[in-house]
Design a protein that fits this description.
GO molecular function, one term: tRNA binding
Keywords: Coiled coil
Strand content: 15-25%
CATH class of the largest domain: Mainly Beta
Order of helices and strands: HEEEEHEEEEEEHHHHEEHHEEHEEHEEEE
Number of strands: 20
Radius of gyration: 33 Å
GO cellular component, one term: RQC complex
Organism: Deinococcus aerius
Distance between the termini: 43 Å
Shape: extended
Protein name: Fibronectin-binding A-like protein
Number of helices: 10
């Protein structure tokens, strides 16, 4: 649902506010309908990827299906006094007055993010604008799901980041003239509240092809835009074509995101490795200084007092005395040997890194080039690039026996201490899951979840593998601990396969292999 469509619904609703609420109904687990006196049902469907809001005269029923809907029915009460939209973004808030009674309910805000795959419905404490404490969220967004933004009950709501676009409701002729050279299909990039569907409808009403710029016909395009503000409906033909284009755009966005993340990680890694080369090169000066001081100490060792913390030694070029700091616990010769060893280490590090520098710079240039291609790439080009990167991926590690969880995650089970250590400390990533039978020697079990949370069937499947590959094999009610790899570490000096871990949870399973 696009911004202008949402604005039209809220504009029609605002003409009836304040309105008395007559109760909530819940037709399904992701739909809430608020009956408003004299208006009808305000239907809020928050199922991704196509959330919608509309007013319906149809009689709707249904009890709450989940804790969020029960909270909504019990706590979001009183008259609906205000509806406001964040610019023409796909975010709006409904303000409720609260009510007095046997149990008083304070005023609240119901905030709806009508944002495709990120759709969410949240109850906020009373206030103005679009920030405030979250009292309850339909979808909890954690750092494992979205590393840029979290939405948690009890946390503070942060609206989407601000942006600068032209408001079509107040667009002037001068502003419209600045868009004359831009293809009508791309006006949505500069004009607020317009997405793929309304962008296609704008082109149809303006009598232009989507890739055609209005030019001198910009007044015609402006008139079409103003008509779209008044009536943001879409013709059937545009709807069908726009739906296909939206599906293509969504697929392209997903591919672009999936391709960008590993490239950006690789770019960061290579950049850091080149920075290591630069630091090692800078260390050559320190190595030269160490060697010069070591030479002086070897030449004048007989003049250095035992236990001295420093000495002043004549420079070889006759330029004067050179101050040299010393370790009082070492002799002059030992101080010199310490400097020689330190200089050799710095020189060896630089030589080793310098050998890799040309390959690293070539890899850096390639990664930057691929990142630059992503933004302008078409869907077909993105698919081809995805296939290329897939073919370039190294083969999976030969370590461990392989299984697959009910949800399709790869599971690796160590067959000995060496494989246990390899799975846990080399192959496993920080947010992968690690399982081990509690209190029994046995295999380390690694679930390569890619940072995603595991469903209960996946947890029980991996836990049975851990129990079956331990000394508790064949027993019943075996306790199995599991945690993220980042909470597992090897104690200093411990043999391979021995670990400590924290933040674990425990499940009890049979010590037999899971079916399938």
């Amino acid at each position: 649902m696009e911004g202008l469509m949402l604005a039209r619904v809220l504009r029609d609703l605002s003409g009836h506010l304040p309105a008395r609420t007559l109760g909530w109904a819940f037709p399904d687990e992701t739909t809430a309908a608020l009956l408003l006196d004299g208006v009808g049902n305000l239907v809020l469907s928050y199922r991704p990827p196509q959330p919608v809001v509309f007013v319906s005269r149809e009689r709707l029923r249904g009890d709450p299906h989940n804790p969020f809907q029960r909270y909504l029915a019990n706590r979001v009460r009183g008259d609906l006094v205000k509806a406001e939209q964040l610019k023409l973004d796909r975010v709006f808030a409904l303000h409720f007055s609260g009510e007095t009674g046997f149990v008083d309910q304070p005023p609240t805000r119901l905030l709806f993010e009508v944002t495709g795959r990120n759709a969410n419905l949240l109850v906020l404490e009373a206030g103005e604008g679009f920030t405030g404490r979250i009292l309850q969220a339909a979808r909890e967004i954690t750092g494992s799901r979205n590393r840029f933004r979290t939405v948690r009950t009890g946390g503070v709501y942060t609206p989407p980041p601000p942006y600068e676009k032209l408001d079509p409701r107040t667009l002037t002729e001068e502003e419209a003239r600045t868009l004359a050279a831009l293809p009508i299909g791309k006006w949505r990039e500069r004009v607020d509240g317009i997405g793929l569907l309304l962008g296609a409808e704008l082109a149809r009403r303006a009598g232009l092809a989507p890739d055609e710029a209005p030019g001198d016909r910009w007044p015609q395009a402006l008139a079409a835009l103003r008509s779209l503000v008044d009536d943001p409906t879409v013709s059937e033909g545009v709807m069908q074509e726009g739906a296909r284009e939206a599906a293509r755009a969504e697929k392209a966005a997903q591919l672009r995101k999936a391709l960008r993340e590993p490239l950006e990680k690789r770019l960061t890694l290579v950049t850091n490795q080149l920075a290591d080369v630069a630091r090692a090169e800078a260390g050559l000066d320190a190595a030269a200084q160490d060697r010069a001081e070591a030479d002086l100490l070897m030449a004048y060792a007989h003049t250095v007092e035992p236990g001295a913390a420093s000495a002043r030694l004549p420079a070889f070029d006759g330029s004067g005395e050179v101050p040299v700091s010393l370790d009082p616990q070492l002799s002059a010769v030992q101080n010199a040997e310490k400097r020689y060893a330190r200089a050799r280490r710095r020189e060896e590090v630089y030589e080793r890194l310098a050998e890799r520098e040309p390959a690293l710079r070539a890899e850096l240039a390639e990664a930057r080039e691929r990142l630059a291609q992503l933004d302008a790439a078409s869907l077909e080009e993105l698919e081809a690039l995805s296939e290329t990167l897939q073919a370039e991926r190294p083969e999976k590690s030969p370590y461990g026996t392989r299984f697959t969880t009910p949800s399709g995650f790869e599971v690796l089970v160590g067959r000995n201490n060496k494989e246990n250590a390899t799975l846990t400390h080399r192959i496993g990533r920080s947010l992968d899951y690690w399982f081990h039978a509690q209190g029994y020697p046995g295999s380390h079990v690694l679930v390569r979840s890619g940072g995603r949370d595991l469903a209960l069937p996946d947890i029980l499947y991996a836990a049975r593998l851990a129990a079956a590959h331990s000394r508790a094999r064949g027993s019943s009610n075996v306790p199995v601990d599991y945690t993220r790899i980042k909470h597992v570490w090897r104690p200093r000096g411990a043999p391979a396969g021995q670990v400590h871990y924290t933040d674990q949870k425990t499940v009890f399973v049979d010590g037999t292999l899971p079916e399938g």
